[in-house]
């Protein structure tokens, strides 16, 4: 599963549309499994555009069956797949209702099923989580995890970096049309030149930090102190020293978050 | 699935979704009811026998009234009620008669077989003028009196007046054009004009709707533009054809039922010709409407963008009206060979038997060639316009953005 990140206007949607030949790239090439993407390959891909698009008056199940058939499925297969997916998203009762009568969140679920219904090898989802409530986010995340576990490639764009961090093994960050960071999330974090240090201790933590060296920024919130320190800084023995200074309530030493990497990458 | 399999899927969706929409079922039903009603209802309110009350002062009136009745009923079928029945009331003087007219007791008063007294002098309420009927009867009586010495009788005069005395022949030696051909040509033209505009608009709004609700982006991720446009035209075309045929069949049976209109002998070839030109005309306009629909994102803009096509159809309609009267004029010939007007003009000329075979054949070839050409041009404009949302896209801009 690949998280596709970038600030607004960086070219995420443009890149996704290019895959589906909705736009002609000015330069570059599009390949899948090392081969250039042919129009027929698109039948094995699934796409969820950022601007949702469904027939408002068409029944949910009929509509999804239709999309399945357009991808080359037989009537029976398309119909049973559409119904199975709607059940999975808890829309079993509403599957014969017109899409316009469904809530925003439910329409979004139907839109995701439209990308999934034909069992694509590659799922390309443009902002699939925007506007969803936490429960809907969870269902959608679960489905994406399952699809990835089944060996399907999932690419999605999102601005909810916590979610991306939670879901994705890999990320690609683009800025002004160019990929600036790409790789496994854990490796990228390890390779980052900074670490986060959080400390909540009686007494004066600034003195402790001063001893540590390599501190780049600090921020204090009551007795809790957050610092960004160099990854080179040796923190062995630091907990012991902190405990000597006073009662230690909280201590955390972590690699930077995805948000930090993102900010760093697009600066 | 082959490219045409996908096209068929698109067509099938149009048929299924549109076919079961309330709007479609309602308009179909409404059309059928209106058509049947227009044919069946008027004869019900039209009395079989027109009745008139005529006042009479003095002598010489009875023979006129009697002749009027015989003239009006000369063409009645035996066993049917008479077309005209006149009752007479005698008055002694003019004042009494005038009062009766004002009271509405009588429609008119004949005086001494020389004068007719009416309220305003216009046609009587109810359409046909009793005054003109009586005028004609009076002339007949007078002719009868003049020539009675020659051995003719009034009955013969009536026969002479109510049958065609001159055989009609044409310069070309063909059978003279009869009125029923004209009626078929006119009805066929109306039908084609309304159907092409109505169903063309369905294509237009259908295309714009897909753009408005953005479903087109999902579609285009797996389906190519020509498959969507082609499927849409095929699906809506079949629905249109079935609605048209349904209307024709209902109209046919309604006409049979009431028997008020002598149904012109409609030949299968006439119907087939009409259907051929409906299909050709529909395809030409559908491609144009479809391509234009892709240029706008909002249904409000759709009407504006349809203007050139609507205008072309209106021009075709008026040229055809002129062709009804002079089907072999240079205008009619030229417009038969222009693809946008041919679907209206050619069927009219065909129904009137006023088009040489080579012109008809050439018109069909020109139309088919235009459909192929327009499908290429229109398809590319359609493809280029589809994904440009927001304001209206220019034809040239759409053409360029779809360039390979």
List keywords for this structure.
heterodimer, A: 267 residues, alpha/beta, Rossmann fold, Alpha-Beta Plaits, six-stranded mixed beta sheet, 12 strands, 38% helix, B: 404 residues, mainly alpha, D-Maltodextrin-Binding Protein, domain 2, 2 domains, four-stranded mixed beta sheet, 4 strands
Low-pLDDT windows of residues of chain B: 123-128
Instruction: Tell me the strand percentage band of chain B.
Output: 5-15%
Question: How would you describe the oligomerization state of the chains in this entry?
Answer: heterodimer
The total count of strands of chain B amounts to 4
Question: Would you give an account of this structure?
Answer:
- The complex is a heterodimer of chains A (267) and B (404).
- Chain A is of the alpha/beta class and 267 residues long.
- Helix content of chain A is 38%, strand content 24%.
- Chain A has 10 helices and 12 strands.
- In chain A, the strands form 3 sheets. In chain A, strands 4-5-6-1-7-8 form a 6-stranded mixed beta sheet, with helices on both faces.
- In chain A, a hairpin with a 2-residue loop joins β2 (31-32) and β3 (35-36).
- Chain A is elongated, with a radius of gyration of 23 Å.
- The mean pLDDT of chain A is 89.
- Chain B has 404 residues and is mainly alpha-helical.
- Chain B folds into 2 domains: 3-40 and 177-401, no CATH class; 49-162, 3-Layer(aba) Sandwich (D-Maltodextrin-Binding Protein, domain 2), CATH 3.40.190.
- In chain B, strands 2-1-3-4 form a 4-stranded mixed beta sheet, with helices on both faces.
- In chain B, a hairpin with a 3-residue loop joins β3 (108-111) and β4 (115-117).
- In chain B, α2 packs parallel to α9.
- Classes of the chains: A alpha/beta (267), B mainly alpha (404).
């Amino acid at each position: 599963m690949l998280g596709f990140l970038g600030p607004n206007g960086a070219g995420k949607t443009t890149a996704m549309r290019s895959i589906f030949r909705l736009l002609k790239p000015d330069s570059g090439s599009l390949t899948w499994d090392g081969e250039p993407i042919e129009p027929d390959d698109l039948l094995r891909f699934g796409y969820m555009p950022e601007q949702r698009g469904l027939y408002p008056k068409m029944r949910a199940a009929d509509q999804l069956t239709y999309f399945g058939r357009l991808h080359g499925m037989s009537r029976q297969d398309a119909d049973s797949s559409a119904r199975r997916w709607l059940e999975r998203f808890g829309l079993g009762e509403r599957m014969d209702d017109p899409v316009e009568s469904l809530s925003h969140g439910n329409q979004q679920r139907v839109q995701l099923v439209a990308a999934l219904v034909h069992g694509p090898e590659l799922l390309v989802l443009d902002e699939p989580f925007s506007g969803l409530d936490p429960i809907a986010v969870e269902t959608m995340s679960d489905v994406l995890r399952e699809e990835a576990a089944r060996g399907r490639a999932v690419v999605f764009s999102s601005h909810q970096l916590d979610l991306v961090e939670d879901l994705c093994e890999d990320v690609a960050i683009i800025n002004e049309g160019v990929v600036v960071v790409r790789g496994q999330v854990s490796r990228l974090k390890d390779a980052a030149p900074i670490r986060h240090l959080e400390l909540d201790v009686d007494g004066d933590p600034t003195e402790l930090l001063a001893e540590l060296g390599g501190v780049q920024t600090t921020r204090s919130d009551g007795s809790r102190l957050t610092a960004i320190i160099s990854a080179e800084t040796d923190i062995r023995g630091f907990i012991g020293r902190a405990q000597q200074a006073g009662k230690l309530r909280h201590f955390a030493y972590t690699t930077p978050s995805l948000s930090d990497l993102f900010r760093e990458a697009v600066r | 699935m082959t490219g045409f399999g996908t096209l068929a899927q698109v067509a099938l969706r149009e048929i299924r979704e549109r076919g079961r929409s309330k709007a479609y079922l309602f308009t179909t039903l409404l059309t059928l009811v209106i058509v049947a009603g227009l044919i069946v209802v008027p004869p019900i309110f039209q009395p079989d026998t027109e009745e008139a009350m005529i006042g009479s002062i003095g002598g010489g009136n009875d023979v006129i009234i009697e002749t009027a009745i015989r003239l009006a009923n000369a063409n009645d079928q035996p066993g049917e009620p008479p077309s005209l029945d006149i009752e007479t009331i005698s008055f002694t003087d003019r004042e009494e008669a005038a009062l009766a007219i004002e009271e509405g007791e009588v429609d008119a008063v004949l005086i001494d077989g020389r004068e007719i007294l009416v309220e305003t002098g216009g046609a009587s309420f109810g359409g046909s003028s009793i005054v003109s009927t009586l005028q004609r009867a009076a002339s007949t009586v007078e002719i009868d009196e003049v020539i009675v010495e020659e051995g003719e009788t009034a009955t013969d005069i009536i026969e002479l007046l109510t049958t065609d005395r001159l055989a009609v022949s044409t310069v070309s030696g063909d059978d003279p054009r009869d009125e029923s051909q004209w009626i078929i040509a006119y009805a066929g033209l109306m039908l084609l004009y309304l159907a092409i505009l109505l169903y063309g608009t369905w294509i237009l709004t259908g295309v714009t709707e897909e753009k408005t609700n953005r479903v087109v982006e999902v579609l285009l991720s797996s389906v190519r533009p020509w498959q969507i446009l082609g499927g849409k035209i095929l699906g809506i075309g079949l629905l249109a054809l079935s609605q048209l045929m349904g209307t024709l069949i209902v109209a046919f049976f309604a006409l049979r039922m009431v028997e008020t209109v002598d149904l012109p002998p409609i030949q299968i070839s006439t119907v087939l010709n009409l259907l051929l030109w409906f299909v050709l005309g529909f395809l030409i306009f559908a491609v144009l409407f479809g391509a234009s629909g892709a240029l706008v994102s909002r249904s409000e803009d759709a009407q504006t963008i349809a203007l050139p096509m609507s205008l072309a159809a209106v021009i075709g309609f008026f040229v055809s009206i002129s062709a009804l009267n002079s089907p072999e004029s240079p205008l009619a010939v030229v417009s038969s060979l222009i693809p946008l007007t041919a679907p209206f003009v050619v069927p009219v000329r065909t129904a009137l038997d006023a088009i040489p075979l080579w012109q008809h054949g050439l018109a069909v070839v020109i139309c088919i060639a235009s459909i192929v050409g327009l499908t290429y041009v229109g398809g590319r404009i359609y493809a280029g316009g589809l994904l440009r949302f927001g304001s209206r896209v220019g034809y040239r801009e759409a053409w360029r953005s779809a360039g390979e």
